[in-house]
Design a protein that fits this description.
heterodimer; A: 261 residues; alpha/beta; Rossmann fold; six-stranded mixed beta sheet; 9 helices; 39% helix; 25% strand; globular; disordered N terminus; B: 255 residues; mainly alpha; MetI-like fold; disordered C terminus
Chain lengths: 261, 255
């Protein structure tokens, strides 16, 4: 019987986090945190800085161990990094000495895919993120936005079901950021993947998410889960003028403002 | 134009130094201080006779052996220091002591242990060259950008992949800079060994010329050391620019 319930939850949720604790020395980063991530959807982790959202993401990625609690991805407990997850880094984490092609193929290279095969896959994703013709450029020859496209292509090319994005647009300029957000909506729609997205921008979270989890700091816990559903079907341009979108942004701001010094 | 001007200024500075030398030699500052032109003449004579080549064949032996050992072992130990805190605590102090030790005072001890042959001279070169290579490598390795290592871990890179595809390439410009400093320290070590242990090679020219008061030859030998070191460092610097320009082409980890 218990097996049965387990299966049901697996179908609905790609990632589950149960009663997770994490401390850095005396500092409690996460306290009894539980959260579910619906399959095929984008969930944002939103909160002021120091609320542990990146810590949570890295625990899900298997890059950091939790002190206690259980994290599962597709029903399997997380014990370390795995092929079912791919990470996009805030500072891009590209190899400065390698070309765009090698950078995009690097995830596959580490997973032991042969050179010709991984480069063919990388070519496809380089085209997908709009970097055709830059295969042989080095990261220092690209703009910040283009570098993050390389980071995104690298994560997509390993074909993981769960994409973990750690403030991916924080280091790019505002115009590029808006374009990225629109592209991300398309990506969620067309790729059958689960996205977990860390951000400190309320507008960004509400704009791109199916579900926004608001984390409050010291120690971190989920204070509220908001599902902006009313405008999800609308096209990218009209979301930003949608009254529900604006309402949710306001509501989140009023609950977060007390935590901002 | 800019490039041309930089050469011109370098040339000017060389002229000033040699000009001052010439004047100081003509005053003379000391009986034992030859003029620049006398030194050049002696240098030419040593070159023609082939004495310099024979001498450097001797001097370069401990230098090359010492620098090669320093490079391989030094980078290895530096890697260990940068990767694990345990080996940092265990090994770093040794090299800090080595770097600050008054080498000339230690040479009698080295002679007692290793005798007066090549081994002692190599040891002197090692003591001079190794610490800077080890310590530079160690700090470069421990300063590898954390997110790059995390990236490799997140894609399930093995420990070996992380070292050879992330850490070493990322650290290589600083490792190379350490190598360059190590080589110049090695030069000092090699000559010091020849002056303090047994006079062979260039050290022999210096010691012998001084003993017969042939000061121009003595200074010519000293000048040749500086010249060779400068040329060697220039070559290394060119190599460095070639290797790390645009951070990539021909890189060790590139397949």
């Amino acid at each position: 019987m218990s097996n049965n319930t387990c299966d049901i939850s697996n179908d609905n949720y790609a990632v589950t986090v149960r009663n997770v604790y994490k401390s850095y020395g005396d500092v409690k980063a996460l306290k009894d945190l539980s959260l579910d991530f619906p399959r095929g959807q984008l969930t944002s982790l939103l909160g002021p800085s120091g609320c542990g959202k990146t810590t949570l993401l890295k625990i899900i990625a298997g890059l950091l161990p939790a002190d206690s609690g259980e994290i599962t991805v597709n029903g399997h407990p997380v014990t370390g990094p795995g092929p079912d997850r791919a990470f996009v880094f805030q500072d891009f984490a590209l190899l400065p000495w390698a070309t765009v092609l090698r950078n995009v193929a690097f995830g596959l290279e580490l997973r032991g895919v042969s050179k010709s095969e991984r480069e063919a896959i990388a070519e496809k994703y380089i085209a997908d993120v709009g970097l055709c013709g830059f295969e042989n450029s080095h990261p220092h020859e690209l703009s910040g936005g283009m570098r993050q496209r390389v980071g995104l292509a690298r994560a997509l090319s390993v074909d993981a079901q769960v994409m973990l994005l750690d403030e991916p647009f924080a280091a790019v300029d505002e115009q590029t950021r808006r374009k990225f957000q629109e592209d991300l909506l398309n990506l969620v729609k067309h790729e059958n993947k689960t996205f977990i997205f860390v951000t400190h921008s309320i507008e960004e979270a509400v704009y791109v998410s199916d579900q926004v989890a608001i984390l409050l700091p010291r120690p971190s816990r989920v204070s509220e889960i908001i599902k902006p559903e009313g405008f999800r079907h609308k096209d990218a341009d009209s979301i930003r003028r949608d009254p529900e979108y604006l309402d949710i942004v306001d509501r989140i701001w009023s609950s977060l403002r007390t935590y901002v010094e | 134009m800019m490039r041309y001007r930089s050469y011109l200024i370098t040339f000017l500075s060389i002229c000033i130094v040699f000009g001052a030398w010439e004047i100081a030699g003509r005053i003379p500052v000391s009986y034992a201080f030859p003029t620049f032109t006398e030194t050049i003449a002696a240098f030419w004579a040593l070159l023609i006779k082939g004495t310099l080549f024979v001498a450097y064949f001797e001097t370069l032996k401990p230098l090359v052996v010492g620098v090669l050992i320093s490079a391989f072992v030094g980078i290895g130990i530096g890697l260990a220091i940068g990767l694990s805190r345990m080996s940092d605590w265990l090994l770093s102090p040794i090299f800090v002591v080595m770097q600050t030790a008054p080498l000339a005072a230690l040479i009698p001890l080295l002679i007692m242990i290793y005798g007066i042959g090549l081994t002692s001279k190599v040891a002197v070169v090692l003591i001079m060259a190794m610490p800077v290579i080890v310590l530079n490598t160690g700090s470069a390795v421990s300063n590898t950008p954390a997110s790059m290592v995390e990236m490799a871990r997140s894609f399930q890179g093995s420990k070996r992949d992380i070292i050879f595809k992330i850490i070493l390439p990322a650290a290589s410009p600083i490792i190379f800079a350490g190598l360059r400093l190590g080589v110049s320290a090695g030069f000092i070590g090699a000559v010091l060994a020849e002056l303090k242990i047994t006079p062979t090679g260039v050290g022999d020219i210096i010691t012998f010329s001084r003993s017969i008061a042939d000061y121009p030859s003595m200074y010519a030998a000293i000048m040749s050391i500086i010249l060779l070191a400068v040329i060697f460092l220039q070559v290394l610097e060119r190599m460095e620019i070639l290797l790390f320009k645009g951070r990539g082409r021909g890189h060790a980890s590139e397949e």
